[in-house]
Amino acid sequence: MITTADEPHLSEPEREPGTAGQPADENIWLEDIHGEAPLAWVREQNARTEELLQDAEYSQLERRILEVMDSTDRIPMVNKRGDHYYNFWKDEKNPKGLWRRTTWESYLSEQTDWEILLDVDALAAKEGQEWVFHGADFLRPEEGQPYRLAMLSLSPDGGDANRHREFDVETLSFVPASQGGFDIPTAKGNVDWLDGDTLLVSTTAEGLPATSSSYARTTVRLRRNQALADAERIFEVPEDHMMAVVAHDSTPGFERTFAVDLIDFYNRTTFILQNGGWAPIDVPTDVSLSAHRDWLLFRPRQDWEVGGELHRAGSLLAASFNGFLAGERNLVALFTPDEHTSLQSWSWTRDFLILNLLRDVSSEIRILTPGTSVSASPVPWKSTFLDACPPLHDVNAYAVDDEAEVSEGGNDYWLVATGFTTPTTLMRGTLAASAGSHSVIKASPSFFDSSAYEVQQFFALSADGTRIPYFQIAVKDLVLDGQNPTQLSGYGGFEVSRTPAYSGVVGRAWLERRTPETPTSNNNGAPTGTHSRGGVYVVANIRGGGEYGPMWHRAALQENRHRAYEDFAAVAKDLISRGVTSPERLGCVGGSNGGLLVGNMLTQYPDLFGAVSCGVPLLDMRRYTKLSAGYSWIAEYGDPDDPAQWDYIRTFSPYHLLRDGVEYPETFIWTATSDDRVGPVQARKMAARMQAMGIPNIWYHETLEGGHAGASDNRQAAALQARSHHFLWRTLAGRS
Predict the structure, then answer these.
(1) Which of 114, 445, 584, 636 matches a 20 to 30 Å C-alpha distance to 259?
(2) Is the pLDDT of residue 610 over 90?
(3) Phi and psi at residue 628, in whole multiples of 5°?
(4) 635 vs 707, which has greater pLDDT?
C-alpha cells in the first residue's frame, strides 16, 4: 500500500462528495464533457499545443502521412456477399468514404469498376450530420435471389453509438418509413435480422434500459412498421452485467437463434431459443462458444475438466452441436497450447477449419479436416500446416464464402500477410483434402525504403524472471551508442496481441526521419566519423495481451496488473543496456489501455523515458467505472468502490501517483471529445493536475470528432499521427 508520506499532490484537503475517506478531486468540473467551461479549457490547451507542434516540419510530416492514408494504391479489402465483393473506401476526394461493390472479374483487373452504393460525404452534406460509416449487415435473401437489403450502422461523430438504417442496394437508397423501412435511433447497441420483416434489436434508444456499462440491457423483437416502444422485449440481463446480445444464425438447414448475457469481458452465458424459451448451453461462463452447422466449438479461458478430461486454457474443442445439447460430452481437442504457441482466431470454409496461431509472436496456420460429429466415439480431425508464414510476420487466413458450393469457391480462403518492413499482400487460395494453394491477388506499395531496415526479436527478463518478447525495427547498421531516438509501443490488456504489421506511417514518420549527422565512436571512445541516424521502433509483447493465450492475459489481471508495467519497463531497460538508446532518447506511446500503460511509465518509471505520448487513456482509476463505458472493465482492472480492491488499483492509477519533486518526462496527452468508450475527461484531468503542480512541458490536445479512434477521416488521423510522432521526435532527437 501507499504510505501517508507518498500521498499524491492535492490542492485542497477536501473530500470528494459521496466518496467517504477519499481525497478531493479538484478537476471534477472537467468531467462535464460538453460544458462551456471545460470546452473553453480544451480550446485553450489545443491552441497552446498547436502553437508548439504545428511548425513547418509538422506540416510536411502531416502531408507525407496523409499521402499514405489517401493512397489509391492501397489494397481495397473486400467481403463477399452473393455474387458481389463489398468494400468501404476513404481517400482525398472521399474523406468520409464510399461504400461500394464490384464483381470478382473486375476486382482482379488493374482498374476495378466499382458500383457506388453510398457516398457518405454526400449523405453528410445532405443531412447536415457528420456521419461515420461503421458497417453493413445484410439480410440473407431467398434462395436464388440477390442480396438486397442491409442495415447500415452510422455514427454521428465516430463514437460507439450508432443509428441503424435499412438500405436497398438495388435502389441505392434508404428504405423510407412510408414503406416500412427500419430506422433505429442513435444509441449504443446492435441489430440482427430475424427475417425480412423482423429485427432483433439490442439498444438503449428511446428509453430502453442500459446496463451500468452504458450498453443495452434488453433485446426486443421489432417488426416492420412497428414502433420501438411497442416491440416485444424478448431478453434481458441484470443491470450490473455488461450487455445483452441476441443473434440469429440463418444458415439454411441450421437456422437457430442465440442470446448472450455478457456478464463482463470474459464471462458470459449463452442461450439457444428452444420451444419458445431460452435454454442455457451448459458450459462455464469463461468458455467461449461458436456454432457452425453440425459443430459446436469451445475455447476455455481457464483449465476446464469435462467428460473426465482436463483441457488447458486456450484450447479449442469440438463437439456435435445436437449431441452436446442432448447431454453428450464427447469433446475432440482441436488445438492444445504450449508455452510457445497460442490460438488467435479460427474460420470455417465449407469443409475445413482454419486455425490462425502464434508461435513466439510469429504466425502459423493449421488446416483441420473434420471427423464425424455424430459418433459416440468422435473421430480425430486431420491436421496439416499451411506453408504461408515467413518468420517474424503476421499472416492470417479466413474463409471467402463458407456457404458457397465447393464448385463455386466454398473452400476458398483469403490470406493476408504483413510484416514490419513487408507491405501487406492479399492472396486467395483453395483448400483441398491434401493441401492448400494460393496466389497473389493484390499487393500494397512500399511507402518507405524498407531495404535499409531489419526486424529482430529480442527477449527481456521481467522482474519475476519471465521472458518478454519484443520486436525491434531499425537500420541494418544501427550504432549501439545509446543515442538512437527510440519509440517503444505497447498495449498489454484485454488479451489483445501486438503482432508484426506494416505501417507506411511509422516508416515515414519515424524510421526514415533523420537527426543531423552525429559524431560516432568505437568501443574505446575514439571518434570514427559521423552518422545520420533514423528512429528505432519497438513493439513490446507484454503480459496482459494475448500473444501466449489467456494465461498470458490473466497473469496481469487486477491485483497482478503491475506485471504488465514491470514487463514494459524491462523492455525499456533492455534497450538501454544493449546500447540501442538511453533514457533521454527513449519515448513510449500507447492508446486506451495502452494510454494507462504509458501513464504508469510516466508516474512509476519516469527515469527510463525522455518523452511520453499518451492517447485516449484511462488514468483516473478511482472514478473510471463512473465514466463512459468504464464499468464494463471491472473484470480487467478491479472495482475501486471495493476498499480491498482499491488498495491495489491505486498502485496503478496514474492520476493518483503524481508526486511533487519528481522530474517527469515531457508528456503529450491526446484524446477526443466524442470518445464515448473511455471518454476525454481522464485525459483532461491528468493534464490539468500536472500543469497545476507546475510540471513543465505537459501538452494536451483534444479533437472534437473521431470517437475512441481519435479521428473520423484520414485528414484527422494524419493530424493525430503527425502530432504524436512530431512531439516524440522533437523531444527525443532534438536533445543535445
Answers:
(1) 636
(2) yes
(3) 50, -125
(4) 635
Compute the radius of gyration of the chain from its Cα atoms. Answer: 26
93, 122 Cβ separation under 8 angstroms: no
Same domain, 463 and 542: yes
Element (H, E) at 190: strand 189-195
Query: Once rounded to an integer, what is the mean pLDDT over residues 605-617?
Result: 98
Q: Are 657 and 683 in contact (CB under 8 A)?
A: no
- Is 656 a known active-site residue? no
- pLDDT score for 407: 86
Range(s) of the domain holding residue 42? 34-66+447-516+530-732
Copy the grid coordinates of residue 339.
Answer: 508455452
> Which residue in 393, 284, 388, 292 sits closest to 334, CA to CA?
292
Quick one: cell of 501?
504489421
Contacts for 605 with CB less than 8 Å, ≥ 6 apart: 565, 569, 572
245-254 per-position pLDDT tens digit: 999 999 999 9
**Domain membership flag for residue 61:** yes
137: cell is 449487415
Q: Which residues of 628-639 are buried (b: 16+ CB within 10 A; e: fewer)?
A: bbbbbbbbbbbe
Residues 588 and 693 in one domain: yes
CB neighbours of 275 closer than 8 A, spacing ≥ 6?
A: none
| Total structural domains within the chain | 2
What pLDDT shows up at residue 528? 41
Same domain, 61 and 80: no
Give me the torsion for CA of 436, 440, 445, 446, rounded to 10°. 40
Report residue 204's pLDDT band, with 50, 70 and 90 as the boundaries.
very high
pLDDT at 533: 77
Among 145, 172, 187, give the residue marking a domain's end: 187
Q: Which of 292, 393, 708, 726 is catalytic?
A: 708
Q: What is the 3-class SS of 637-703, one letter each residue?
A: HCCCCCHHHHHHHHHHCHHHHCCCCCCCCEEEEEEECCCCCCCCHHHHHHHHHHHHCCCCCEEEEEE
DSSP for 497-525, please give it: -------HHHIIIIIS--PSPEEEE-TTS
**Does residue 712 carry a pLDDT above 80?**
no
Judge whether 130 and 117 are in contact, CB under 8 Å. Answer: no
Written as nine digits, the cell of 269 is 452465458
Catalytic site includes residue 708: yes
Q: 538 and 568: one domain?
A: yes
- Main-chain dihedrals φ then ψ at residue 698, nearest 5 degrees: -110, 120
> Is the domain of 609 the same as that of 722?
yes
Q: What does the pLDDT average to over 411-421? A: 97
What CA–CA distance (Å, rounded) separates 468 from 566?
A: 10
The pLDDT score that the predictor gives to residue 656 is: 98
> What's the pLDDT tens digit per position in 288-305?
999 999 999 999 999 999
| 640/558 Cα distance (integer angstroms) | 11
| Rounded Cα distance, 52 and 700, in Å | 11
- Entry pTM: 0.93
Q: Is the pLDDT of residue 713 over 90?
A: no
What's the CATH number where 463 sits?
A: 3.40.50.1820
Beta pairing, strands 698-703 & 666-672: parallel
Given a cut of 60, is residue 1 above it in pLDDT? no
Q: Which amino acid is at 338?
A: D
Q: Is 468 within a domain? A: yes
| pLDDT surpasses 70 at 209 | yes
For 681-702, b/e burial (b = at least 16 CB within 10 A) is: bbbbbbbbbbeebebeebbbbb
Question: Of 187, 222, 241, which residue sits at a domain end?
Answer: 187
Report, as an integer, the average pLDDT of 176-180. Answer: 95
Q: Do residues 51 and 115 share a domain? A: no
Q: Which candidate in 592, 628, 674, 724 is catalytic?
A: 592
Are 60 and 104 within one domain? no
| Judgement on whether residues 701 and 634 belong to the same structural domain of the protein | yes
